[in-house]
Design a protein that fits this description.
Strand content: 15-25%
Distance between the termini: 27 Å
Order of helices and strands: EEHEEHEHEHHEEEHEE
Number of helices: 6
Helix content: 25-40%
Number of strands: 11
Structural class: alpha/beta
Bound molecules: zinc ion
CATH class of the largest domain: Alpha Beta
Shape: globular
CATH topology of the largest domain: Lysozyme-like
Strand order of the largest sheet: 1-4-3-5-2-6
CATH architecture of the largest domain: 3-Layer(aba) Sandwich
Number of domains: 2
């Protein structure tokens, strides 16, 4: 990640049911633009708890040129896809990321591509897990990737995410060869369904998997406290 990732969840009692706390095991990530050329990630997070906001709309993460803010736990649903509240709707199955339009947009896009690449890698997903808001409801969103219906910006964004995912692999592989660890790729299954790719240290007999993926699959909330280098799980 090339920018700060801040967790600042809105309270469960936020008006207009913006945090309904319905548990969610996400299967995709949905990309949006805020539609507001002057708002920052902080503005968008604050809007969710602004008393004059009377809309039932929310999102998991907002990102701008400086920072990403997680507004709702990624294991709960948000209302960002406009395609209803059914169990298979985007609202109930997808993590919503709002890309801000303010400031240095090229930097914001690069931050977003880095964040999404790391989220895909953490979950063992490819770019086929990415959705536009448009894919759920037909809304022209993310609007800055629309390009009069050609969606060239969307294809470019997916390519940037894909390239960053690959870079991460190349950077991390030499590390796996150093030291005493002997890493082997393994697959982790839950209830007969593949959950994630993991690494097995054949010398130590330890399996390494992304804690978020496993914890969320088991219904726990995950919080990363970067300052204290601590992962907190809440059931
Ligand atoms: Zn949208």
């Amino acid at each position: 990640m090339s920018c700060n990732y801040l967790i600042d969840h809105i309270p469960p009692n936020t008006p207009c049911n913006r945090r309904p706390a319905l548990p969610m095991l996400a299967t995709t990530i949905t990309i949006h633009n805020t539609g507001n050329p002057s708002s920052t990630a902080r503005n968008e997070r604050n809007w969710l708890t602004n008393p004059s906001n009377n809309r039932t709309a929310s999102y998991h993460i907002v990102i701008d040129e400086r920072e990403a803010i997680e507004c709702l736990p990624l294991s709960e649903n948000a209302w960002h896809s406009g395609d209803g509240s059914g169990a298979k709707s985007g609202n109930r199955t997808s993590i919503g990321i709002e890309i801000c339009e303010s400031g240095d947009y090229a930097k914001t896009l690069d931050n977003a591509a880095s964040l999404v690449a790391s989220m895909l890698r953490e979950r063992g997903w490819g770019v086929d897990r990415l959705r536009r808001h448009y894919d759920w409801s037909g809304k022209i969103c993310p609007r800055l990737m629309y390009d009069n219906g050609k969606w060239t910006g969307w294809e470019a964004f997916k390519a940037a995410v894909s390239s960053k995912s690959t870079q991460n692999v190349q950077e991390s592989e030499p590390k796996q060869e150093r030291g005493d660890m002997m890493m082997e790729k393994i697959e982790v299954y839950m209830n007969d369904k593949k959950l994630i790719d993991g690494l097995y240290d054949t010398k130590a007999g330890v399996t390494y998997v992304p804690v978020r993926t496993v914890a969320e699959a088991l219904g726990a909330g995950v919080k990363w406290d970067a300052k204290n280098k601590r992962v907190e799980l809440k059931c």
